[in-house]
Specification:
Helix content is 43%, strand content 14%. The protein is of the alpha/beta class. 1,3-dihydroxyacetonephosphate binds next to β8.
Length: 263
């Protein structure tokens, strides 16, 4: 039986004092006995603050990205060794925002390639994380144009195959895959639960082919994209949806605790 997992992706939000206040509220609002596994992925600069506050709880801290080399002349980058040292349990990789596939363009088009994560770099990042025993949260998902062209399954299968190249099932069985349709991120448009369920089942089948049956059954598959307290219960009750990767709604402790309760 897979344990439900709810992860808050804070993206580029929260100063140290805001993070500290948000975690304090969360710890008061969420029952420590909850059966749900919970993690918050803050910016690099607040990982230590959140990790310290979570120290005596069962909650985990994670990162939003990583660079694959352990150390060296890579200005602006942070390695898996450093994340481990900070107490990170999870790390998001391949998010559509770091792949540079924005649902709505909030930055000049000419700068999109600055983000430009590819299946190949996602693969290198996953290997670096596994080497440090940090659990990757691998994000996959189609853009609106890809969905409208009927390419959803093909796009996601290619992302999974590229990201997991050369990785054994036994190595990734504690890993997580998050299905995040790009068009549903931060737009208020949620993928309807039947379609989210269909895609997550397709992902599990693809994981069986790419890795093996044992790993595919163990890997948690999350849904992400405008998850709110009003839609979480229905999404999380689908057989192949093992929880959520929550953006905007994870910034408000009250709302996030309701989502955790739905799981
Ligand atoms: P929203 O929940 O704000 O749509 O963001 C989803 C997401 O990108 C989580 O990683």
């Amino acid at each position: 039986m897979r344990k439900k997992l709810v992860v808050g992706n804070w993206k580029m939000n929260m100063t140290r004092s805001e993070a500290s206040a948000a975690i304090e509220s969360l710890l008061l609002l969420i029952e420590p006995t909850t059966e749900v596994e919970l993690a918050i992925c803050p910016t690099y600069l607040t990982i230590e603050t959140v990790a310290q506050q979570f120290r005596r709880s069962r909650f985990h801290v994670g990162a939003q990205d990583v660079f694959w080399m352990p150390s060296g002349a890579f200005t602006g980058s942070v390695s898996a060794v450093m994340l481990k040292d900070m107490g990170c349990h999870f790390c998001i990789v391949g998010h559509s925002e770091t792949r540079g596939r924005f649902g709505k363009l909030e930055i000049p088009e000419s700068t999109v390639s600055y983000f430009a994560e590819t299946d190949e770099t996602v693969n290198l990042k996953i290997k670096a994380l596994l080497f440090q025993s940090i659990h990757p949260i691998l994000c996959v998902g189609e853009t609106l144009a890809e969905r409208e062209a009927g390419r959803t399954d093909e796009v996601i299968q290619a992302q999974l195959k590229g990201a997991l190249q050369g990785i054994e099932g036994a190595e990734f069985r504690d890993g997580v895959v998050a299905y995040e349709p790009v068009w549903a991120i931060g737009t208020g448009k949620t993928c309807d639960s039947a379609e989210a369920s269909r895609v997550c089942s397709m992902i599990r089948k693809a994981l069986t082919d790419i890795l093996d049956e044992d790993a595919a059954q163990a890997i948690r598959i999350l849904y992400g994209g405008s998850v709110k307290s009003g839609n979480a219960e229905e999404l999380f009750s689908q057989p192949d949806i093992d929880g959520g990767l929550v953006g905007g709604a994870s910034l408000v402790a009250e709302e996030f605790s309701k989502i955790v309760r739905s799981a």
